[in-house]
Amino acid sequence: MSEQSSANQGQSVVTKILDFDLQRKHKLVEIYDDILQLADELQREKSIIQELTTQFGNFRSEIPNSKEILLEEECPIIIAGETSAGKSGFINLLIGSDIFPVSALACTSTIIKLHNSTKREIRVTDDKGKEKVIEFGPDNESSSIQKEVRKYVTIKGEFLNCKCVDMYFPVPMLKGNTVIVDTPGIGTTANPELNARLFEFLPRAVAFIYIIDSSRAGGLENDRLLAIFEELRSWRQRGKLIEFDASRTIFVCNKWDAVEEEEDEVLNYITETLREHWPNFHEKQLFKLSVKEEKKLAKQEKSSENYRKLLSGIKKMVPSSLEAKVVMNARYL
Ligand SMILES: Nc1nc2c(ncn2[C@@H]2O[C@H](COP(=O)(O)OP(=O)(O)O)[C@@H](O)[C@H]2O)c(=O)[nH]1
Ligand SMILES: [Mg+2]
């Protein structure tokens, strides 16, 4: 496969992240098991059990629950950003297959989840919860898959009442229950339901990658980003979303090939805007990329320094986010 080299790099980064996540989860499960065993051994020491229950609630029934959630919940890698910033193209680059529809005109209007599976199928759920399954054979080209997906996810598509699209394909880099989530342009009030759904995903995110269109006046309509931030803050105030740490987002300045002004000025503008609006923003969270150029390079089994930097940035940042997530999960231990 011509895109293999570049895709391999993306895949190895994602795989590393997920290995790390699984290891930590299993460690935590071991700790849970130890506690339950200890509680069994202390069965006769009624006063100790009573004391622990007063302190930690009904931990003997809660721990098995937590264990299950920990091992079975979906771990989303969320790709967000302005409409037409290049989110779908970025996912195609990452997975090394052009199955996500990319278009300048018909933007994605629904959430698409990509799952790793031995099957090759798309499941479309309409707004009444009815599901339609479209199966593909092993010989179907990515272009024909993309064409089919396009029907359900674009504003001008044939099926407007589609609520979500789940794609099941062999994507070995997505281990366990990890899914890649392609979100429509978010942060707008145009579709509050979609915004709400994004915020449902965020607390469980193993990565939050925000794609910026650098070619459009610096690419940041900061009110949208601000809307996300405000929403996060209100969730946190209500005691939700404690696992999500805004400082662990990755910002990708895409379409770097199409930046017409002075590149330094554009980068400074984006940096300043993020510094102003995103809490604890650090420049090391920001990466330049041209999905367009990168795809050309991938065809020659090459990759740019910018893309390699981005992949290593994701690799470095996500383990600490997972660590925080597991610590949060284990907070009553
Ligand atoms: N010049 C240029 N165009 C790009 C780049 N990445 C994406 N595009 C174009 O931008 C448009 C939107 O891309 P898409 O991935 O569908 O954006 P999405 O709406 O964020 O998912 C398409 O026409 C792409 O070909 C890039 O790096 N450079
Ligand atoms: Mg898209």
UniProtKB/TrEMBL annotation:
InterPro entries: Dynamin_N (IPR045063), P-loop_NTPase (IPR027417). It comes from the Eukaryota. SUPFAM superfamilies: P-loop containing nucleoside triphosphate hydrolases (SSF52540). It holds the Pfam family Dynamin_N. Residues 77-254 form the Dynamin N-terminal domain. This is Dynamin N-terminal domain-containing protein.
